[in-house]
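Attaching the record inline, Q. Sequence:
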Amino acid sequence: MNRKSKHRRANIIPTRFKDAFITSTIGHRQEITSEYGYRDNIYYSLIDAILIEMRDRFSPSNIALLSSLSSISPQNKNFLNYDLLLPLSSHINCDRNYLFNEIQVLKPMLDNKNLSSISELYHDLMPLQQAFPNMMLMIKAALTIPVSSSTCERVFSKMKLIKTRIRTTMADERLSDLCILAIERDFQMDYEQVIDQFSISHNNSRIMLR
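Structure, as predicted:
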């Protein structure tokens, strides 16, 4: 810690420029020579940056939103707690009054069902989505809200590969469809069903695909 950093090599002016007037700029470099210097300039700065980032990521509003997401899970002890669901309902512009009425009807219906995940809850309520539109909207939000920035980073990395110079005039809708196909690779697609659906939708197509 007490060892001094290596000095920079001195600049020597050539002899032919001895009588000339030369202006030059040199970079300012602060040398850290002691334990106190490392503590003040590196350690404290790093701790401050970490604390600021944690305050931004785990602010009271974000914590309340995370609690709302967890309240939709059937395994949570606060499952369908109306007060905890309010931050998420405000975030997605969901009607609070209708949501309250839907929760009062939905809770007794789910008491005897052993659901283990939000996905199972979604599939269980799918036939009743017209009766519980606001609750279905909340469940969809809980299933699709990304929990980290890795999803966004993966999308942008794939977008660079998909939208090449040849595809600069591609519309946003087609770009979105191609990105989904490239990112969600675990989605099993039945190509025969796709071809049949395309053939039914385009009766005037010149090539019969089936």
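Residues 35-57 form the longest helix (23 residues). The two ends are 76 Å apart (CA to CA).

More tomorrow.
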